Amino acid sequence: xxxxxxxxxxxxxxxxxxxxxxxxxxxxxxxxxxxxxxxxxxxxxxxxxxxxxxxxxxxxxxxxxxxxxxxxxxxxxxxxxxxxxxxxxxxxxxxxxxxxxxxxxxxxxxxxxxxxxxxxxxxxxxxxxxxxxxxxxxxxxxxxxxxxxxxxxxxxxxxxxxxxxxxxxxxxxxxxxxxxxxxxxxxxxxxxxxxxxxxxxxxxxxxxxxx
Length: 211
Prior knowledge:
Elements: H1 2-24, E1 33-34, E2 47-53, H2 58-73, E3 78-84, H3 92-103, H4 107-119, H5 128-137, H6 142-149, H7 152-168, E4 175-178, E5 182-185, H8 186-189, H9 192-210
Parallel strand pairs: 2-3
Antiparallel strand pairs: 1-5, 2-4, 4-5
Helix pairs in contact: 3-7, 5-6
């Protein structure tokens, strides 16, 4: 009887120990960093998760299926935001294309196909005209896209995005930022999949802090 009782206690304690181990496996300064100055989020009623990415980045292309799967499963209290980075002159047309498509509410048509065009089909996009032709093939209004590409609204989004990226201290992509407070990279987390696990850990941390 005592032996059986002991086994039952072990069975009850093990999940608790496992849970503690899971929580403690992600450490500040190792798997993520806290930003010295928090960056204001776009929706303070929810926990914001930002993906800093770039279409020219092969690692972002590899990460895309994982982030898509994560996005489908995220809770309603999580606000997912993508910010295209500009790490050089050749990156700006892609950032403008993303913001143009976002404002036109056609990202679902253009986001993954843009990655595929660059990394699978090996297409080169150097200017607005080439991107407008491609997006037109995807069912986006080519004339509206071309007009939006150089618009004040897109230029402002570009500036705001660049300001946030600098505030986050992002110097490589893909990077994730949780609630404007924590930055995670695959190198810190250990892999792209682990990066999302750290994101979920930090989202829960922010939920508890808000209670």
